[in-house]
């Protein structure tokens, strides 16, 4: 603290002097307020209510307002405000729903003046009128706001926000009759104190509760709001509809917001939890704070600028039981630690590079060589005179643009919209996606989908045998593929007959054709063996021609000039007793005994006859086991996914993850999957492919991604009659016991798609509301609200 500087500010003949300092309190503080002359500050909390004098070197306790032997809940303060016109007048909001006023001019020790007990729950905020000495406004957890005239014992007006709780109320500095209120459901309402029956304007400001608001001291229509969604938004209220002009993204829920005096674009914020620091933001640079105060060790609960015309001193109270005065000159500036250099690719391949202006100034004098078509374009950020720290991290931006048409991403959009990720069998999904990729000219991707179908898709079980025999004297193996048939269509006795007899001297060849879609052959025990689903059919036969006459049959290219042979039905008894197949050659027997040969190959090999004059084929199983288990290819599939991700095609990696699901999920770590999903979802949202993005989130195999829709969507539903929030999931309101989803046009219960106005809560059937608003802009319920449908 000794190294901190001192500042003296002249204000209308008086001078504010001081330095950064703090003092220890007896208990945590909930709120603070400064008197008009900036010489004293009041600190209020559940167990503390004291006034401190602000001296040049320290805080000095002047008065303790918690007097009496017995502690009272009226002294447990949630908020405190010091009147800016009468220095002897204070008001507090108690946690038991009581609003208390305090008169410091009373000669007795007890300075309590009046008690207003009209609220039923905790009062969250109290606010004095900036120019009217006797008007006090309060907002409570019961959803009501009350306006008190301190010359009377009761409230003069009650305002119902039609919400669960009021979090903040603030009188407008420029408009005498206007005040703003923020609510738990994310709405902000503007009221005229002369019309307590309905608000003048209401709009949804945040996704979640709005904890605070503050009117700009100079710009008449600017209202700053902060909420649980970690955002501070600045609204222009001078337009017909509230317009968001600035938005600041913070790192925690915003508990307090205060505009900085004499600085039009600066405001201070503190958080409700997690973050203990106080930030001063320039709303024109919303991503990096202009200043940061780090003195507190617990959550900051109250902030106030010491004087409405002095931007140098900021006071704060915290749950760490400290009261601090911060000198703006001593604040740390995160912009000094910000990296002024960056690199980013655009959606369409453009490259942006930011660097320090000093480096760019040196390099900008160098002319680009003639072969370089990508001439850099420099944009220099103007320095804000109200924020001298902005120049510390100003950068020059160089943009390298792609040639027109060379960086088209239409293939990405078309692929995302046309891909099928669920709702069909795996084989159909792979075939469909392969077709889409092939039509877009992405042949490698199409081939990958085809390979995935071969690896993971089972051919299914066929109840019969797809056997075809060709009989012909002197025929070779160059025969066309014949149609497969089911054993049920064959005459009885042939279904179990797997051996074909041939008379002596007959030179015909018996062939067996295995169909690619189902090569299941029934043996004597009526067992079924799974065959290969590889899209190829092989001809197995005994031949007397050359070796090259054995070839792969192509079912799409049949030879029409060759005769089609079918298996004849035996209409006469067999010529002799069918004998067992003689043993095969020794080298085939050895192969059957080898541990590296499957049982199907061994059985097929053992069926080859020794006598060349006796050609006989007996098939009881698939001739070979050409189908490896899918797990055998898991490592290869994972390498393929990583290859596509490293090449930048995260779309392919995520699509395969979704289509294969559990088949491949266990082989890729959760962190990698989450990284792929977030990258792909970010790309989809950049291209405004919201439906596809939602489908990917819904079908994702990562738990962290699948819960995004549950965490990012909040829907608050109010009853259209009593305006209270719907606590149950049914159609009947728990408070008024009336059906909430009534159509304002046809007056029937809406059991399907329901659309409602966020301003008046009335709605109905989608088609009815659309037809109504085509001819009238007023609410069909007759409430007078101007509803819009877009």
TrEMBL record:
Q: Which Pfam families match?
A: WD40 (PF00400)
Q: Where in the cell is it found?
A: Lysosome membrane
The record's similarity note reads: Belongs to the WD repeat WDR24 family.
Q: Which spans of this chain does UniProt mark as WD repeats?
A: 116-158, 203-245
Q: What is this protein called?
A: GATOR2 complex protein WDR24
Q: What lineage is this protein's organism placed in?
A: Eukaryota, Metazoa, Chordata, Craniata, Vertebrata
Among the GO biological process terms of this entry, one is:
cellular response to amino acid starvation
Any one annotated GO CC term: lysosomal membrane
Answer yes or no on keyword Zinc. Answer: yes
Q: In which pathway does it act?
A: Protein modification; protein ubiquitination
Q: What is its EC number?
A: 2.3.2.27
Against InterPro entries, the record matches this protein to: WD40/YVTN_repeat-like_dom_sf, WD40_repeat_CS, WD40_repeat_dom_sf, WD40_rpt, WDR24
The alphabetized UniProt keywords are: Autophagy, Lysosome, Membrane, Metal-binding, Repeat, Transferase, Ubl conjugation pathway, WD repeat, Zinc, Zinc-finger
Q: What is its main location?
A: membrane
Q: Looking at the keywords, is Repeat present?
A: yes
């Amino acid at each position: 603290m000794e190294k901190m500087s001192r500042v003296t500010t002249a204000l209308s003949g008086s001078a504010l002097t001081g330095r950064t300092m703090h003092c220890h309190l007896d208990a945590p503080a909930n709120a603070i307020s400064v008197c008009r002359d900036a010489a004293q500050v009041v600190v209020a909390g559940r167990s503390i209510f004291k006034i401190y004098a602000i001296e040049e070197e320290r805080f000095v306790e002047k008065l303790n307002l918690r007097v009496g032997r017995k502690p009272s809940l009226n002294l447990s303060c949630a908020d405190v405000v010091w009147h800016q016109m009468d220095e002897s007048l204070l008001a507090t909001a108690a946690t038991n729903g009581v609003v208390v006023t305090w008169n410091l001019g009373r000669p007795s020790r007890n300075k309590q003046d009046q008690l207003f007990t009209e609220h039923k729950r905790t009062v969250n905020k109290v606010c004095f009128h900036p120019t009217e000495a006797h008007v006090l406004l309060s907002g409570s957890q019961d959803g009501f706001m009350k306006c008190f005239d301190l010359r009377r014992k009761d409230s003069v007006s009650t305002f119902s926000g039609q919400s669960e709780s009021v979090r903040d109320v603030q009188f407008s500095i420029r408009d005498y009759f206007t005040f703003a209120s923020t609510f738990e459901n994310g709405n902000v309402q503007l009221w005229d104190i002369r019309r307590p029956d309905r608000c003048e304007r209401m709009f949804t400001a945040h996704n979640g509760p709005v904890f605070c608001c503050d009117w700009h001291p100079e710009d008449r229509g600017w209202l700053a709001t902060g909420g649980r969604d970690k955002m501070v938004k600045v609204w222009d209220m001078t337009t017909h509809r509230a317009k968001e002009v600035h938005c600041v993204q913070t790192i925690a829920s915003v508990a307090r917001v205060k505009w900085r005096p004499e600085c039009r674009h600066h405001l201070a914020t503190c958080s409700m939890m997690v973050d203990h620091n106080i930030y001063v933001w320039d709303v024109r640079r919303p991503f990096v704070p202009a200043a940061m105060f780090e003195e507190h060790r617990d959550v900051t609960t109250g902030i106030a600028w010491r004087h409405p015309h002095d931007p140098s001193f900021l006071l704060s109270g915290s749950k760490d039981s400290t009261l601090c005065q911060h000198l703006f000159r001593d604040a740390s500036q995160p912009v000094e630690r910000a990296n002024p250099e960056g690199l980013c690719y655009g959606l369409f391949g453009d490259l942006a590079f930011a660097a320090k202006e000093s480096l760019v100034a040196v390099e900008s004098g160098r002319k680009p060589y003639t072969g370089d078509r990508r001439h850099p374009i420099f944009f220099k950020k103007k320095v804000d005179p109200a924020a001298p720290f902005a120049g510390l991290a100003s950068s020059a931006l160089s943009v390298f643009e792609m040639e027109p048409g060379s960086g088209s991403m239409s293939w990405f959009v078309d692929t995302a919209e046309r891909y099928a990720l669920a709702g069909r069998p795996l084989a159909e999904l792979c075939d469909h996606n392969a077709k889409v990729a092939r039509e877009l000219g992405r042949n490698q991707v199409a081939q990958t989908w085809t390979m995935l179908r071969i690896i993971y898709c089972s051919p299914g079980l066929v109840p019969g045998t797809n056997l075809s025999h060709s009989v012909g004297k002197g025929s070779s193996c160059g025969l066309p593929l014949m149609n497969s048939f089911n054993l049920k269509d064959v005459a009885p006795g042939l279904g179990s007959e797997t051996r074909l007899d041939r008379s002596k001297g007959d030179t015909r060849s018996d062939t067996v054709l295995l169909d690619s879609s189902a090569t299941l052959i029934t043996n004597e025990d009526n067992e079924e063996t799974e065959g290969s689903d590889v899209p190829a059919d092989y001809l197995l036969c005994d031949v007397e021609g050359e070796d090259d006459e054995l070839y792969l049959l192509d079912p799409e290219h049949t030879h029409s000039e060759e005769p089609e042979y079918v298996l004849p039905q035996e209409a006469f008894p067999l010529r002799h007793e069918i004998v067992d197949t003689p043993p095969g050659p020794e080298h085939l027997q050895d192969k059957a005994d080898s541990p590296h040969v499957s049982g199907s190959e061994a059985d097929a090999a053992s069926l080859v006859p020794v006598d060349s004059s006796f050609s006989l084929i007996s098939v009881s199983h698939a001739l070979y086991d050409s189908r490896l288990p899918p797990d055998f290819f898991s490592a290869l599939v994972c390498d393929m996914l990583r290859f596509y991700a490293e090449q930048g095609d995260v779309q392919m990696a995520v699509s395969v993850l979704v289509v294969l699901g559990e088949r491949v999920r266990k082989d890729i770590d959760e962190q990698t999957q989450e990284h792929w999903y977030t990258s792909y979802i970010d790309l989809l949202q950049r291209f405004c492919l919201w439906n596809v993005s939602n489908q990917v989130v819904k079908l994702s195999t990562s738990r962290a991604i699948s819960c995004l829709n549950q965490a990012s969507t909040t829907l608050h539903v109010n009853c259209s009659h009593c305006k209270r929030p719907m606590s149950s999931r049914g159609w009947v309101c728990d408070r008024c016991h009336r059906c909430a989803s009534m159509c304002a046009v046809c007056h029937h219960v809406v059991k399907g798609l329901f659309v409602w106005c966020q301003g008046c809560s009335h709605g109905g059937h989608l088609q009815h509301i659309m037809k109504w608003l085509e001819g009238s802009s007023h609410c069909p319920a007759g409430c007078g609200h101007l509803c819009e449908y877009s």
